[in-house]
Amino acid sequence: MNDLRSDFPILKNNPDLIYLDSACTTLKPRPVIDAAIEYYERYGACANRSSHRKGRETTEKIDQIRERVAGFVGGDSEGTLWTKNATEAINTVISGFDYSKKNKVITTNMEHHAVLLPLMRLRDRGKIKLEVVENSHPDSNLEEEIRKKIDKETALIVLNNANNTTGKRQKVDEIGKMAHEFGAKLCVDGAQGVPHFKCDLKKENIDFIAFSAHKMLGPTGVGALVCRKEDLSGLRPLVVGGGNVKKVELNKIEWAADQSRFEAGTQNYSGIFGFGAAIEYLTKIGIQKIEEHEKDLRKKMVNCIQNAGAQVYGDESSASALVSFNFKGAKPHEVALMLDQQGIALRSGFFCAQIALEAIGAKEGAVRASAYLYNDQEDIKKFGEKLEKIGKLYS
Amino acid sequence: MSIFSAKYRPLAKKGFECVFKTLTLKPCDTGLDDQIKSEIVGKLLKYSPALAKIINKQFALLSWIFVLLTIGSLAYSGLGIYNFYLYGNCEGPNATGACILNDITGDYGRFSEPKDLIAPTTLDGIAVGDPNAEIKIVEFGCFTCPYTKKAEPTIQQLIREYNDSIYYVFKPFPLPNHNGSFDAARAVLCADEQNKSWELRTEIFRHQEICSTDGVLAIKNLAKNAGINMSNFNRCYDQNKTDAALSRYIQQGKDSHVYATPTFFINNKTIVGPKTVEQFKCVINENQNLFEQIGCSLGQWWGK
Ligand SMILES: Cc1ncc(COP(=O)(O)O)c(C=O)c1O
Q1: How far is the CA of A115 from the centre of ligand 1 (A)?
Q2: CB contact, 8 Å: A25 with chain B?
Q3: CB-CB neighbours of B150 under 10 Å
Q4: Is the pLDDT of residue A286 over 70?
Q5: In a mutational test of the pocket of ligand 1, which residue from A24, A192, A357 has the highest number of ligand atoms less than 8 Å from its CB?
Q6: Mean of pLDDT values over A151-163
Q7: Distance, CA A235 to ligand 1 centroid (Å)?
Q8: Would you name the residues of A annotated as active-site residues?
């Protein structure tokens, strides 16, 4: 892990930067940047449209990457579609799902707005019945909570397998099994999961999993939804246009049978190229290794933050290197800005999860430090030293 | 200034909002205060954690002080603009200033930085004394400029004290931004034809405000009071007989780069604005000994 840092141009260009905002977006290694540029320099064409040589090469490459992305989460390329980010992937499921036969949806109070807002909007329009179960307490047993609410009317369960507020991870295989017993589907917001630990669509009984490239070393503006091919047929595309159809007559549309039904318009090819390189980079290191590294970082982070006198939110056994905290009497933004002055980049506020922050008792928001594979113990040590000084301001 | 930059405009907006809210005793909720505080405290932390702690705790008090300072300086700027409009000088009527040539029409060829002053090459004008006197004082003045008026007693005293050794020449330099300045200049030139210029000039300075507001009418009244032959005066005035001379003096002023009235050329030295008799004396005697020169600079520095 130690020599990884030299792969990240941004760290080379800013030797004093300690980047602890990877839950928002990660830094990009050289191979990802090169791959994104490679599209423009060597390929440059449309995929699945033009039959000339460059068009064919682009199509081939995009198909290969689709397979690689699908494989990363144990899915097949036929059930994998490009989106612009995790948000769009989640919306594709929530808004495109068929609620005509049953319309109950279960989610938790620890979800990102990417999950809660599309659900609440459907609820407010009377399209679904929404159950929000409690999952903010370190001892909450989500499986039990869902079991209390699930019934034959349940169409969908949507939840994350790692939240962006306390870093808590959620095993979902049992929840998936339960969903299937009741004929419901499980959609996992994997934005904070897929980049950090092994996720497997089939082994974990997941029906849909959504994630963003930019949170896993890839470029911004591209994400993916992975599911089984059969499950795509039940979804209605969010956006329609070029590339969606087999045949169009003025009074009849024949939609494409495969995932291209969901990929309207020219796609973010350069982003997809970078996404492919990111998956390759992560695979080479090994997701298991990343997970262990983050576990060590988290331990040290929690120690440093508590030593500085701040309150850490959430369960300490949750495994992501993502810790939210607050100093008594300090506004979160203040602390973040002071750390910024000392060369430490992290996030403060509500992290697009206001309900979750209220649930954990951080009504004014919190400060969040989130590390990734390019951070080392030295980073955390420095972070701890600066934090300690800030802590004294409020002691 | 930040409202002109896309980068800083949002900051300026937040700033205005914050100041307005603070003044109306509402909390500033734009986050700008927190941002500024955190950045200052964050920077200080690197050097002095103790000082950082104090600032962190007392920031509200500090920002109040700054708000009050800002209002104070805004009010002061406003007063300056008001004074400039009224008196042609930001510091008001009683200041040691001068009437700045505010040449909006461009007739005087400038509305810019003062250039170096150059002594006029001719000594024509409304003159007093012996043309061969050792000390020659040329004044470019505007009869409706309060600072030209303010310099008047000094000039009179100098003429009295130095008597024969001064040759004093007044070149009218009416400022376009002072009402009645041209009327007064023409009138004094007409009075000079009857050797009554000093009498009229004294009257005009004494009643300067009416001259500015009422123009010719007031000035003709003053001329009558000064014992001027009005039929000759009216002929001179109404037929614009002095226009050629006046244009010449204005041109000379421009050539000398005069940017404010009164401007004095004392031999080749210059004084801008009304100064004390002592300061004039200093300049008159300047090429004497070193000690006096130092005294002079101090005198000019401290003099009012
Ligand atoms: C848990 C979770 N879900 C969804 C998202 C949305 O990701 P994106 O903004 O890439 O669509 C995020 C990003 O902050 C997240 O943390």
Answers
A1: 9
A2: no
A3: 20
A4: yes
A5: A192
A6: 97
A7: 21
A8: 352
Cα-Cα-Cα-Cα torsion B42, B43, B44, B48, nearest 10 degrees, comes to 100
| B4: amino acid identity, one letter | F
Q: Give the predicted TM-score (pTM) of the model.
A: 0.71
Element spanning B146, H or E: helix B146-162
Q: Nearest chain B residue to A393 by CA: give it.
A: B53
Contact A338 B45 (CB under 8 A): yes
Domain A31-284 in CATH 1.10.3720.10? The answer is: no
Beta carbons of A338 and B42 less than 8 Å apart: yes
CA angle B290, B295, B296 (to 5 degrees): 95
Best A18, A333, A338, A367 member to test B by mutation, with max B CBs in 10 Å, is A338
Mean pLDDT for each 10-residue chunk of chain B (304 residues)?
75 81 76 84 89 88 87 89 67 64 55 67 88 90 91 89 88 89 91 89 89 85 88 88 90 88 86 83 66 50 38
Return mean pLDDT, chain A: 95
Report pLDDT for B300: 47
Residue with more model confidence, A249 or B104 = A249
Q: How far apart are CA A182 and CA B127, in angstroms?
A: 114
Confidence class of residue A22 from pLDDT cuts 50, 70 and 90? Answer: very high
Cα–Cα distance for residue pair A389/A382, rounded to 1 Å: 11
User: What is the rounded CA–CA span in Å between residue A40 and residue B39?
Assistant: 41
pLDDT for position A229:
95
ipTM of predicted assembly, 2 dp: 0.71
Backbone dihedral region for residue A314 (phi beyond 0: left; psi -120 to 50: alpha; all else: beta): left
**Three-state secondary structure string covering A280-345:** HHHHHHCHHHHHHHHHHHHHHHHHHHHHCCCEECCCCCCCCCEEEEECCCCCHHHHHHHHHHCCEE
Q: How distant is the Cα of A385 from the closest Cα of chain B, in angstroms?
A: 11
Look at residues A27, A8, A20, A32 and name the one whose alpha carbon lies nearest to residue A279.
A32
Within 10 A of A247 (CB to CB), how many other CB atoms are there? Answer: 9
CA distance A393 to chain B (A): 5
* pLDDT given at position B163: 79
CATH number of A2-20+286-393, picked from 3.50.50.60, 3.20.20.20, 3.90.1150.10, 3.40.50.300: 3.90.1150.10
Q: What is the A354 CA–ligand 1 centroid distance (Å)?
A: 13
Asked if the Cβ–Cβ distance from A337 to B52 is below 8 Å, we say no
- CA closest to B37 among chain A residues: A334
Q: What structural domains does chain B harbor? A: 13-87 (no CATH), 126-302 (3.40.30.10)
CB contact under 8 A, B37 and A334: yes
pLDDT score, position A340:
94
Q: Which residue has the higher pLDDT, A251 or B81?
A: A251
Q: Over the stretch A94-144, which tens digit does the pLDDT of each residue have?
A: 999 999 999 999 999 999 999 999 999 999 999 999 999 999 988 889 999
User: A341 and B43: CB-CB below 8 Å?
Assistant: yes
Please state the domain extents for chain A. 2-20+286-393, 31-284
Please give all residues whose beta carbon lies within 6 A of any atom in ligand 1, as ranges.
A 85-87, 112, 114, 160, 163-164, 189, 191-192, 212, 352
Radius of gyration of chain B (CA): 26
In this predicted model, what pLDDT tens digit does every residue of A172-223 receive, in sequence order? 999 999 999 999 999 999 999 999 999 999 999 999 999 999 999 999 999 9
